[in-house]
Specification:
Blueprint: H1 2-7, H2 10-54, E1 58-70, E2 76-88, E3 92-99, E4 103-108, E5 112-117, E6 122-127, H3 132-141, H4 157-162, E7 167-176, E8 179-187, E9 191-198, E10 205-212, E11 220-229, E12 248-249
Parallel strand pairs: 6-12
Antiparallel strand pairs: 1-2, 1-11, 2-3, 3-4, 4-5, 5-6, 7-8, 8-9, 9-10, 10-11
Length: 271
């Protein structure tokens, strides 16, 4: 009798704890499921973008870029440029960029790579062969040109953008230049990135942001891509350099300045 009497008060107590454990497990499972679905959704959208871009032989677009620097006084300054892109897979690329501190054209015709500094009317050339992928790799490894956003031009953007990714999220939707886009966010060791991809049958990237986590103030590099064309008919001289009279040829090491910010300013926010 005493055993029965003593055991009765414990039943609701045990039941309450069991309910708490079950509820906590259910919440944890629900959150984990949502997080997994969010990551799967982000990667699926990114893969669709990658597959679409790789399937286009010719791509042309207008570009706007903003790059931020942090001064020694911890003031954030932003520098803006605009330009044009023309890609003809697998081995032709033309990119121009005009800002307040540089007016530069990069041209690769499959056999020769040229950087033309229009401000100083000088150019540097090097014999190079291979794909655009190989060119970008050489620019990064040999010329120390980061080429932020160039991963979007590779033959497998999905692989490049998911390399060493720690976290992927499908944030939702946003509107870039009046176009509805899927908004994705990714985390890496030293950087975070965001990308907005057009909704619909043409999933092209419309905005790409890289945020540095290694520098105080989190400076960002922002690329906005407009006037996307994937069916442009190329002219015979599409990858022929148009240079001014009196242009002077120099070595690459002599190129004084072709960046988006003034010389002597430390740049952050690049991947």
């Amino acid at each position: 009798m005493n055993l029965i009497a003593l055991s009765r008060p414990n039943r609701p107590f045990v039941g309450r704890w069991a309910a708490v454990i079950i509820l906590t497990s259910a919440i944890t499972l629900s959150v984990a499921t949502r997080v997994q679905a969010q990551e799967d959704g982000a990667l699926k959208i990114l893969k669709a973008m990658s597959d679409y871009l790789v399937g286009q032989k010719v791509i042309s677009a207008a570009l706007d870029t903003d790059i931020e620097v942090i001064t020694p006084e911890l003031q954030k300054i932003q520098f803006a440029s605009s330009g044009q892109l023309l890609l003809n897979r697998p081995e032709k690329l033309r990119v121009s960029r005009t800002g307040g501190y540089a007016d530069v054209e990069l041209l690769y015709d499959g056999s020769k790579f040229t950087i033309y500094d229009k401000y100083h009317n000088v150019l540097a050339q090097r014999d190079v062969s291979g794909s655009v992928d190989q060119l970008i790799d050489r620019l990064r490894s040999e010329a120390m040109i980061e080429a932020s956003g160039a991963d979007l031009l590779l033959s497998n953007p999905y692989e490049a953008l998911t390399l060493d990714v720690l976290d992927a999220k499908h944030i939702g939707r946003g509107v870039i230049d009046g176009i509805e886009c899927e908004h994705l966010a990714f985390r890496y060791q030293d950087t975070d990135s965001q990308i907005w991809i057009e909704v619909g049958p043409r999933p092209v990237p419309r905005k790409y942001v890289i945020t540095s986590k290694a520098l105080t103030g989190g400076p960002q590099y922002t690329l906005r891509i407009k006037e996307w064309k994937t069916d442009e008919q190329l002219s015979a001289d599409a990858f022929t350099l148009k240079q001014a009279d009196g242009v002077r040829k120099i070595e690459f090491k002599e190129l004084a300045h072709t960046d988006e910010v003034p010389q002597g300013v430390a740049v952050g926010g690049r991947q």
